[in-house]
Amino acid sequence: MSTLGWWRLVYAAFAGFLLFHGFSASENAPNYSFMHNATSAPFLSYYDYIVVGGGTAGCPLAATLSHRANVLLLERGGSPYGDPNITKLVNFGASLSDLSPWSPSQRFISTDGVINSRARVLGGGSCLNAGFYTRASPEYIRQAGWDGRLVNQSYEWVEKLVAFEPHLGHWQSAVRNGLLEVGVVPFNGFTFDHINGTKVGGTIFDEQGNRHTAADLLEYANPRGLTVLLYATVQKILFRFRGRRSRPEAYGVIFRDGSGIEHRAYLKYGFKNEIIISAGALGSPQLLMLSGVGPVAHLRAHNIPVVLDQPLVGQGMCDNPMNAVFVPSPIPVEVSLIEVVGITHFGSYIEAASGETFSASVTTSRNYGMFSPKSWPKQ
Where is the signal peptide (predicted)? Predict the structure, then answer.
């Protein structure tokens, strides 16, 4: 794969900079000939690359690799297309409040009592979040040791499909003016760039209020080089030791379809062939540990055979701290998600959303998790 091809995937590394960031799922769903339900998959198959997780990392990665290799993308959820709770801005929060087993949002509560959700849908968290799009800071690029020119080309590759300039309504305009009044300056206008002060950032919602997610980036794929399987839950990565090599080598995965039937996918013989785990900050270490890679004491405590002792797998996980202030209004306020941001010199970000979704009257019957003006009692 070309160097530019790899840098197109930088978008995935920056997903953390998109506060509740999201991408794709308009009503004009693409006709992906390579997308299938996992129940139709053969029990045994071979690929050059196996990508586990079809979110903000897996989709652009699989699309790029498909131009020079035969790629399998495994996603445990379904398609975002055709679901108005995902695709429509006015329905924001509906998926987060859906606690059914087939919901694209999987509710969980951390050990310290914080409500959150894991995505289980093609497009990942970009199907659930508030859709703010921004680039990383130049300082982050320098510290990572990346080529700034290639990084910018990668951004442009993504932005052609999934990033838009918002048209500010009354609420977002008031947020902009308020930030400037309290001294979050200068005003930088509309820009995708990360600049201290107040700016209007990008949005993954188009002018018609349709969400665009990472699944849209599969439009860049070579349809002859890609297979996407939905409702395919990977159970285990398969490892082996060959010759005198002291470290294990991944050569396949075991996954189950929606009916519970087991399938196996193996790597073809090839020096560069790989299994790539892009199942999210929680799902990736979870799968590694289920496969025997992780802290040896923890694996043995759960009777998991140890393949490789990696003490840092699953450790040091934390989320960005967030403090929310709910402002009641005596009159209805239009629905708007994150469009204006105040980037302070001390590293915090001030953003705001508006509309009935966030009102206390709604949450008596529907709990929107982190977006609800209520606390969750610790168990």
Answer: 1-25
- The angle subtended at Cα 14 by Cα 124 and Cα 122, nearest 5°, is 15
Q: How far is CA 317 from CA 54, 278, 284, 286, 321, in A?
A: 21, 16, 12, 12, 13
Instruction: Work out the number of other CB atoms within 10 angstroms of the CB of residue 243.
Output: 5
Is the link from the previous residue into 186 a cis peptide, with omega within 30 of 0?
yes
- Structural domain including 114 reads 24-131+213-316
Distance CA 38, CA 257 (A): 5
Q: For the segment 293-326, what is each residue's pLDDT rounded down to a tens digit?
A: 999 999 999 999 999 999 999 998 887 788 888 8
Regions of the chain where pLDDT drops below 50: 1-27, 360-364, 375-379
Residues 92 and 138 in one domain: no
In the block, which residue shows the tokens 């990565």?
A: 237
Number of domains in the chain: 2
3-state SS, residue 347: coil
**Which residues is 234 bridged to in the sheet?**
255
Helix (H), strand (E) at residue 119 = strand 115-119
| 8 Å CB contact between 179 and 351 | no
